[in-house]
């Protein structure tokens, strides 16, 4: 691929990211959420979908916030009925964060049409093509995460 081709791909990713950000901002505004609150909910949902436990410490690291900020964020989300704090059955000192079914429903009601459109768009691709797309998106996600990490260490 030429440099122009690579640049075109990056611009297309940026355009997609902007559109997703705008849609997320619309959802956040409609439901009186701060953008960080929405990122927290998405992170918690992704963590749960992966079968992993989310704790306040994990959320602080994920969002790059201090523990006091995460406590305030979780308090807001809990008051709004979007998350709940559960005690770990194996270690009662540990708190597990979970998105409530009501919050999941809000998300599906709003983002459901997008998922339907995206699923329909994927229908035109073969399974081998989709595997290439999965690999590409994983590589791009890793590149962005790596850039974020290097910014932390470079000051």
TrEMBL record:
Q: Name one GO molecular function term.
A: DNA-binding transcription factor activity
User: Per UniProt, what is one Pfam family of this protein?
Assistant: MarR_2
Residue ranges of every copy of the HTH marR-type domain listed in the record: 6-142
What is the residue range of the signal peptide feature?
Answer: none
The UniProt entry's GO biological process terms, in alphabetical order, are:
response to stress
Query: Per its record, how is this protein called by name?
Result: MarR family transcriptional regulator
